[in-house]
Design brief:
Its cofactor is Mg(2+). Belongs to the UPRTase family. It holds the Pfam family UPRTase. The chain is α/β, with parallel strands linked by helices and about 210 residues long. The chain has a single domain (about 5-205), classed as Rossmann fold. Helix content is about 35%, strand content about 30%. The strands form 3 sheets. Strands 1, 4, 5, 6, 7, 8, 9 and 10 form an 8-stranded mixed beta sheet that branches. Strands 2-3 form a two-stranded antiparallel ribbon. β9 (about 155-160), α5 (about 165-175) and β10 form a beta-alpha-beta unit. α1 runs antiparallel to α2 and α2 packs across α3.
C-alpha cells in the first residue's frame, strides 16, 4: 500500500489555512500556493543523496556535502498543478518539468487524457507529480499511469489537500507511489469536491470560473 505522509510543519499548516479562505484574492492565492509548494518540496526531498566534496572558503579548505546528482523531474497535472511548479523549481532549478493534461468528464466523473509532454529521460528520473487537490483520485491515477507507460518507476505524488477517497484510489491503483499532502480532509460532496477543501484550485489560481 502506498505510504501517506501528512506534512504538519507549522508554516505549511498556517499558509494552507490562508489558502482555504474563500475571500482570498487570486494574487494572494497564487503567492501562497507557491510558498506552500516550496515548503513541501523541502520536505519531499529530504531523502536526496549527498556526496562529500572539498571546497575552499574565504578562510580555509573545507570538506562539505553537495547533492550527489540524482536526476529529478516535476510533472504538473494540468491545469491547477501549474500553480505548484514554481515553488518546486525555485528549490530544484535543475529539475526537468513535464505536463500531463487530464480532465474529469462531468457526466461520468472519469478522467480523460488530452495532453502529455514529459522529459525524454523520464525513466531515469525521480518524478514528483504535483496537483493541489486529490479528490476522487481518478485524474491523479490516470496521470501516474501515463508516467509509468513512459517508463517512470520512481514517482511521488504531492498535493495540498487530499480526500480519503482519493488516497484509497491511489493506494489501490499505484501502491508503489508515495503520497505527500498538507491535509487529509473529511471526504467528498455529491459533486466530488473535497470537504472542507479549498474550492476549485484552478479557478482560484487563474481567476476563472
Amino acid at each position: 500500500m502506498a505510504k501517506l505522509t501528512i506534512m504538519d510543519h507549522p508554516l505549511i499548516q498556517h499558509k494552507l489555512s490562508l489558502i482555504r479562505q474563500k475571500d482570498r484574492g487570486a494574487k494572494e492565492f497564487r503567492e501562497l500556493v507557491e510558498e506552500v509548494a516550496m515548503l513541501m518540496a523541502y520536505e519531499v526531498t529530504r531523502h536526496l543523496p549527498l556526496k562529500e566534496v572539498e571546497i575552499e572558503t574565504p578562510v580555509a579548505i573545507a570538506k562539505t556535502n553537495i547533492l550527489a546528482g540524482k536526476k529529478l523531474g516535476v510533472v504538473a497535472i494540468l491545469r491547477a498543478g501549474l500553480g505548484m511548479i514554481s515553488g518546486f523549481v525555485k528549490l530544484i532549478p535543475a529539475a526537468k518539468i513535464g505536463h500531463i493534461g487530464i480532465y474529469r468528464d462531468p457526466d461520468t466523473l472519469e478522467p480523460v487524457e488530452y495532453f502529455s509532454k514529459l522529459p525524454q529521460d523520464v525513466a531515469d528520473r525521480e518524478i514528483l507529480v504535483v496537483d493541489p487537490m486529490l479528490a476522487t483520485g481518478g485524474s491523479a491515477s490516470a496521470a501516474l499511469s501515463v508516467l509509468k507507460n513512459k517508463g517512470a518507476r520512481q514517482i511521488k505524488l504531492v498535493v495540498l489537500v487530499a480526500a480519503p477517497e482519493g488516497v484509497a484510489r491511489i493506494q489501490k491503483d499505484h501502491p508503489d507511489v508515495e503520497i505527500f499532502t498538507a491535509a487529509l480532509d473529511e471526504g467528498l460532496n455529491d459533486h466530488a469536491y473535497i470537504i472542507p477543501g479549498l474550492g476549485d484550485a484552478g479557478d482560484r489560481f487563474f481567476g476563472t470560473k
